[in-house]
Design goal:
323 residues; mainly alpha; Serine Threonine Protein Phosphatase 5, Tetratricopeptide repeat; 18 helices; 73% helix; elongated
């Protein structure tokens, strides 16, 4: 029975999921007690994605081999993808009662807690996974993301700096560092982090977007304009979602105009206003003067948001009459 398994794994590794699934379905029909074949069939169906049938295959593998923790956790991943996190969490708790020393299970539980919106609980699980395996790349990656979401940006930067030092060749390490530096308004640190991500993968659109945002927020408008235009040129769904989330969080751009209004002038003023709203008054005078300069020389395609205009009304801007 080893030969069909080997052939199926080869098909899986080359992305030929339907062919692999067909082979494994035949194997499972011929030998319904083959737990390994059911597990591989679940992996094929998950990749297709055929979530309900993937879950059934993984559950069958676990029923045949209760010690197969990998299949049990694969079923949890399917439930998360199917947006059934409560069911996934119940399974995690059951498994943790018997396998609390498994770092992968601690990580999986963290992922489920994230899906439930329990970021503090997710962080606790990622910490436990890393205590067991300090080089657990996905736990380290997710830990930085959760810390940023919790607003603990200095800790997120420290975490992501460690991520970079352990995995300098991973684009996600540098991208996550850029993200946390942006959240902390450390734009001069976000810029090189995003550039290092792009040096590894020039097509990484979210790093390109972060580079444009950081350049614009630091006042380097023309450089930011080029990067933002490049990031949006392919109409990448991930980029659009990121822009819309940023627009909604900032409250300064009408969400339906987020992509078209994402000009560096808007970014500079929005992020500057966010800094003031958090009671960071450093360089207020210089920021207000730059606002006046931008408003006077505004291009036709920027500074069009009504919400942004309302924010600017509260700035101590002044015009200077000619002498």
């Amino acid at each position: 029975m080893a030969e069909p398994h080997v052939e199926a794994i080869g098909l899986l590794q080359t992305g030929r999921f339907r062919e692999a699934a067909g082979l494994l379905e035949t194997t499972c029909e011929r030998d319904p007690g083959d737990a390994r074949a059911w597990f591989l069939l679940g992996a094929c169906r998950h990749a297709l994605p055929d979530l309900e049938r993937a879950l059934a295959a993984f559950d069958r593998a676990v029923a045949l081999d209760p010690s197969n923790l990998q299949a049990a956790q694969a079923a949890i991943a399917v439930l998360c993808d199917a947006r059934r996190p409560a069911e996934a969490f119940a399974r995690c708790e059951d498994l943790l009662s018997r396998h609390s020393d498994d770092p992968q299970l601690q990580f999986s539980t963290g992922v489920v807690r994230e899906a439930l919106g329990d970021f503090a609980g997710a962080l606790d699980r990622y910490d436990r996974a890393l205590a067991m395996d300090p080089g657990f790349v996905h736990a380290l990656q997710n830990r930085g993301i959760v810390l940023t979401r919790l607003g603990r940006v200095d800790e997120a930067i420290e975490n992501n700096g460690r991520f970079v030092s352990l995995f300098p060749g991973k684009v996600d390490a540098h991208y996550n560092l850029a993200e946390s530096c942006l959240a902390a308004r450390r734009y001069d640190d976000a810029i090189p982090a995003a550039r290092r991500a792009l040096a590894i993968d020039p097509t990484h659109a979210l790093s390109r977007l972060d580079l444009g945002l950081a350049l614009a927020a630091s006042g380097r408008l023309e450089e930011g304009r080029d990067e933002l235009r490049h990031a949006m040129s392919r109409d990448d769904p991930a980029v659009r979602r990121r822009i819309e989330a940023w627009a909604a969080a900032s409250g300064a751009i009408d969400p339906f105009d987020a992509a078209t209004l994402l000009q560096p002038e808007d970014v500079f003023l929005i992020m500057g206003c966010e800094r003031l709203e958090s009671c960071d008054w450093a360089e207020l005078g210089a920021f207000a003067d730059r606002c006046v300069e931008m408003i006077r020389g505004a291009r036709a395609d920027c500074l069009q948001s009504r919400a942004l205009a309302f924010k600017l009304l509260h700035l101590p801007v002044r015009t200077r009459s000619a002498i």
